[in-house]
Write a structure and sequence with these properties.
alpha+beta; elongated; 134 residues
Length: 134
């Protein structure tokens, strides 16, 4: 018996999530920076858990898949949004007919906003030291 799984990669800010969906009953295995973490303890805020489950709720597939999540880099919010994109892409791989539903909710769009780099002579990306005439 071969294990059928669906894969999706999600990126947001400096977070990269690799999502594997396997047929099951809704279990979530989470690895953050190569360390196993309990899902509900790591994503304590309800808002983050809601972000992650959004594509599954929209497509009514919450209890159909076990999720294996590997996330590297970034903070909790960026990781949650990276996982959301990965899940949405994996669902499209599972069933192409789900694409219009996910696309209309803009869950298949990669949010490309990242932190702007610091420039020399400035205190940050744009903040300049106080000007003095003399």
């Amino acid at each position: 018996m071969s294990l059928i799984q669906y894969y999706g990669t999600g990126k947001r800010k400096s977070s990269i999530a690799r999502v594997f969906l396997r047929s099951g009953k809704g279990d979530i295995t989470l690895f953050v920076n190569k360390r196993p973490r309990p899902f509900t303890e790591y994503f304590r805020l309800d808002a983050y858990r809601t972000i992650i489950r959004q594509p599954l709720q929209l497509t009514e597939t919450e209890d159909k898949f076990d999720m294996f999540l590997r996330v590297n880099g970034g903070g909790a919010k960026g990781q949650a949004e990276a996982i959301r994109l990965g899940i949405a892409r994996a669902l499209v791989e599972f069933n192409r007919e789900l694409k219009p539903v996910l696309k209309s909710a803009s869950l298949l769009t990669r949010d490309s906003r990242v932190k702007e780099r610091k420039k020399y002579g400035l205190l940050g990306a744009r903040k300049a030291p106080q000007y003095h005439k003399r």
